[in-house]
Amino acid sequence: MIVQEPVQAAIWHCLNHYDYADAVFLSERLYAEVKTDESLFLLATAYFRSGKRDNAYHTLKDRHGVSSQCRYLFGICAYELEKSKYGEAEAALLEDSQSENSFDTVTNEFGDQASFALLLLGKIAAKTGEMPGPQRLGKKP
């Protein structure tokens, strides 16, 4: 059994000092032992920062809905991979924001990351030429 906190600290230390290979190795081992939102986020972050955006995307694809950090990172991965994934990026960011006040919901849900989540939604809108929001997700205004 892995003691989670020291391993997480070691992973962040590797990431902060650009030792991505060790960060990926340690985060893969941690996630194999402890399947939490935190360890999932660390694994996807290690993949993303090491340039393995496909791995980060596929790691989060079916499991991104739990934490706002994972959903935001999945949104970034989907946005950066290809045009056909813009809808997935938007859906991940607006997953729980299908109300008319989705701006307020996103702001409350993402906390410190809210401005970045909203910026990503704006980038998606600029690329697709459509306004993000509940209408795109099948909810009527």
Output the number of helix runs: 8
Topology as a string of helices (H) and strands (E): HHHHHHHH
DSSP summary, beta strand count: 0
- Provide the structure class: mainly alpha
Strand content: under 5%
Name the overall outline: globular
Taking the sheet with the most strands, its summary is: none
Rg calculated over all Cα atoms: 16 Å
Q: How many domains make up the coordinates?
A: 2
Helix content: 55-70%
Low-confidence stretches: 134-141
Query: What is the typical, i.e. mean, pLDDT?
Result: 85
The separation of the N and C termini measures: 50 Å
InterPro entries: TPR-like_helical_dom_sf
Please characterize this protein's 3D structure:
The chain is mainly alpha-helical. The chain folds into two domains: about 50 residues, no CATH class; about 60 residues, no CATH class. It has eight helices and no strands.
Helices and strands in order:
Blueprint: H1 4-16, H2 20-33, H3 37-49, H4 53-60, H5 68-81, H6 86-93, H7 102-110, H8 114-128
Helix pairs in contact: 1-2, 1-3, 2-3, 3-4, 3-5, 4-5, 5-6, 6-8, 7-8
